[in-house]
Amino acid sequence: MSGETDLGRLLARMRPELRPGTYVFATLDDGALPAGLAPVMSFREAEGTTLILPEAEAARAGLTSAFPCRWITLTVHSSLAAVGFLAAVAARLAGRGIAVNAVSAFHHDHLFVPAARAEEAMGVLREPGGQETL
Which of 51, 66, 101, 115 ranks highest by number of CB atoms within 10 Å? Predict the structure, then answer.
């Protein structure tokens, strides 16, 4: 398996990157993706298919959405088998009362935080010594 597994190295090398735009979570009951949609994530659950997609795309498709958020990528190549990385990051944000919805992909972990608190979340993640004390 590729990627870093050492928690100390993950925290020390983590460089959060705030991506442009506002994203939302939406769900499809039947799982059929409307034409023209390009979600950044889709996940099938028993109740329906969850999508994370740009807010404007959801609106154009007439989808009911929730949780307007910003997307932060933790630009360290974390292993899918890494232990404690997202827990440490989420705990630090939780300590400031910032909600986070995390998604792990093959190369990186991604955080979706409330749009109104995205800059604050970036500040928390970038605090001097913050990576080492997460």
Answer: 51
